[in-house]
UniProtKB/TrEMBL annotation:
It comes from Kushneria phyllosphaerae. Signal peptide: none annotated. This is Peptidase S9 prolyl oligopeptidase catalytic domain-containing protein. GO terms for molecular function: fatty acyl-CoA hydrolase activity; serine-type peptidase activity. It holds the Pfam family Peptidase_S9. SUPFAM superfamilies: alpha/beta-Hydrolases (SSF53474). It comes from the Bacteria. GO terms for biological process: acyl-CoA metabolic process; fatty acid metabolic process; proteolysis. InterPro entries: AB_hydrolase_fold, Peptidase_S9_cat. Residues 158-251 form the Peptidase S9 prolyl oligopeptidase catalytic domain.
Length: 253
């Protein structure tokens, strides 16, 4: 029996999940949150996408860590993510469309990568982008050995000495509470957030939506009523359906 989902190595980067056969397939790169690369959440998303016809690549970007420790999100070089996106675009099994998805800190990561690539005129922008529970500002560095209080990073008193991201060798332009200029990205954009999220306030996505609309953008925005940072079963089923419909529409055309 042929497996419904097969693994393929993206040379130099890691594993992908996709349907059997030669493809090519619409591709999505997945960025994990503060749970780290070892937790399995991004691979779970990848398998779900693969089961519905996508080639999915979970990129691990957290610094250090292991199966018991999520590691850090400190001075993560965003240009490495750009290189990974370009590698996925050039993969033999990748079709014409390449999307980017991230949740929580991965959503922040995805929005930053797209906005910086657009700002600096870097080729290979994702053809569409989805972000679940995204912040609208740059957040501070994260160490899994600690845990930040719940709330809204728009007012969170981040430790200024700990910076999460760097771009082209510097973190100076990515200080905590700096607005993420996702309005620079003009591709299809899907945003989602649980309205009862106590870890990342839904106010962040509402601010993103308002700013995008002020700049003439038309994001697809889904608010999951009564849901927290991690969606419940029925809500997650509905969310997956919407997410995959979005990527099918924007990557398979």
């Amino acid at each position: 029996m042929t497996p419904a989902i097969v693994r393929r190595a993206l040379p130099g980067w890691g594993t992908t999940y996709g349907p059997p056969g030669d493809g090519p397939f619409p591709a999505v790169m997945i960025l994990h949150g503060s749970e780290g690369a070892w937790s399995g959440w991004s691979h779970r998303h990848a398998v779900m996408l693969a089961a519905h016809g996508f080639l999915a690549f979970p990129l691990g970007f957290s610094v250090g860590g292991n199966a018991w420790n999520a590691g850090q999100i400190i001075e993560v070089p965003l240009e490495r993510t750009v290189a990974a996106l370009q590698a996925l675009r050039g993969f033999a099994f990748t079709g014409q469309g390449v999307g980017l998805y991230g949740a929580s800190r991965g959503a922040e990561h995805a929005l930053l990568v797209a906005s910086l690539m657009a700002r600096d005129g870097i080729e290979g922008l994702p053809d569409s982008l989805a972000a679940h529970a995204p912040p609208d500002v740059v957040c501070g560095g994260f160490d899994a050995r600690t845990f930040r209080d719940s709330g809204d990073p728009g007012w969170q008193a981040w430790d200024g000495a700990q910076r999460a991201w760097s771009w082209q060798g510097s973190s100076e332009g990515l200080l905590p509470t700096t607005p993420i200029e996702i309005e620079r990205y003009d591709g299809p954009l899907f945003l989602s957030h649980g309205t009862a999220d106590t870890l990342w306030s839904v106010a962040m996505t509402r601010r993103l939506e308002a700013r995008l609309k002020r700049h003439g953008r038309t994001p697809e925005v889904i608010y999951m009523q009564g849901e927290g940072h991690i969606l419940g079963g029925e809500a997650e089923n509905d969310w997956y359906a919407r997410l995959m419909t979005f990527f099918a529409r924007t990557l398979m055309a």
